[in-house]
Amino acid sequence: MSKPSKTYTLEEVASHHTKDDLWTVIDGEVYDVTTFFDEHPGGDIILDAAGIDSTGIFEDVGHSFDARDILKNYHLGKLTKNKQGQNNDKN
After folding, report:
1. Which of 22, 35, 40, 60 is deepest in the core (most CB within 10 A)?
2. Intra-chain end-to-end CA distance of the chain, in Å
3. pTM, whole model, 2 decimals?
4. Whether 81 contacts 7, CB under 8 Å
């Protein structure tokens, strides 16, 4: 049985919006890309995605399959509309 995915609200994500604490949402998935900041090929532009649902930005740039694969390393969980944002199980 797989472990329930951690979920986060957009408000939680929004509190991580600096180069030293950088979370973003892409396609309903939450990523902590803080440690990728210095490696990002586009440089500081990644800050435009900090603390928001950046799906549109990510898609508009036309990121490669490799970029999508790299994202997996930074995955935290799923975006939820639930204010508590704990997990998806109903225990």
Report:
1. 22
2. 15
3. 0.84
4. no
